[in-house]
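--- STAGE predict ---
source: upstream dedup step, 1 unique chain passed
mode: sequence only
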Amino acid sequence: MQVALYARVSTSQQETMDTIESQLATLQAYVASHEHTLFPEHIFLDNGVSGSRLDRPALDRLRDQARLGEFEAVIILAPDRLARSYPHQWVLLEELKKAGCGVIFLANPFGDSPHGQLLAQMQGMIAEYERSQITERTRRGRLHKARKAEFMPWAYRIYGYRYTPKQAGMPPRVALHPEQADVVREIFGWLLHEQLTTRQIVKRLNAQHIPTRTGQNQVWHAASVRSILTNVIYTGHSYYNKTKTDVPRQETRRQFSARKAHYAREGRPPEEWVPITAPAIISAPIFAKAQEQLQRNQEKARRAYQPASQRYLLRTLVRCGHCQLHRQATRQRSVCKRYTYLYYQCAGKDPVTAGRPQRCPARLVRADRLDALVWTLVRALLQQPQAILQEYALWQQVQQGQQGQFQDQ
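--- STAGE serialize ---
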């Protein structure tokens, strides 16, 4: 029998402890003992990827190849390696079953019998319960350490600070990064004294070849500069545990993604906040003035923008097929200045806005032609009530996490 193997570990620490290798060795021993056929390209490994999410690189390749019928079964150590959430397990098992691909769990001695299916469901529910317990214990432990100033999640990713982990009995410490702290002061100075916009600040940083926080990105991004200008930690005081994860209360465009679970952030009451202190880079009055200047810049940009959205049917709905960024509504005048043409332009055409070193090579799309094509399809769909009901039923399955059935249909 032609088979495939799938193994997964959740953290990079497990990856370094050879947990993924031990899983792979157990799976390969099973294949050898049962004389199954296994090709190297049918070994799928997800290193350091959480089992609570479905968008895993190796799992995506496994699902795609299973639909093509490249193997008859996939062998996995236990149900929790496939997914930590029981609904996700059910979605994946149903999808593989429809593709004609069996699933063999080595931790299930009853196989695909009714007893085996019952045991797999119980293991899935136990794995989900265990994950919830781990999440809650981790949250309480981090909160306890944060109150003792021993947990500083913000220090890993804030530009201008250097984090020293706990070592030799000394608690973790946060110190200023001299070069980056000077850059932070310059950014606030450019905003207040020269009244530069965020975009202009990005251009100046790139022109001066100032490295980013990690040094991996060649250019600065406008969102990174704005996060610096709006982060109150630079005044020396902030709070931890201000928000919590919650389900979005209203539908957003993000929910159209079939394989990702997106969550909203909901504020906590002030009595649950944990104070955070750090070496101050700027004063509180300067930070307050910076927020006022940002607000004035935003109002000025809004007044300068002349909206023509009523002329674009698909504004904010079109994505670039080359780099997957949103396409923006734009217009261009003809050479003779007598005609105006409307286009959908990839945001990657502007490297400063997209935070990329090069422009997107994708061509502009005529808005009138694309709008007419989509509107024709929509009108044809409106004339078929049964098709609308079917699409709505599929959309409900996506909202409930049944992405596999949605993709098959």
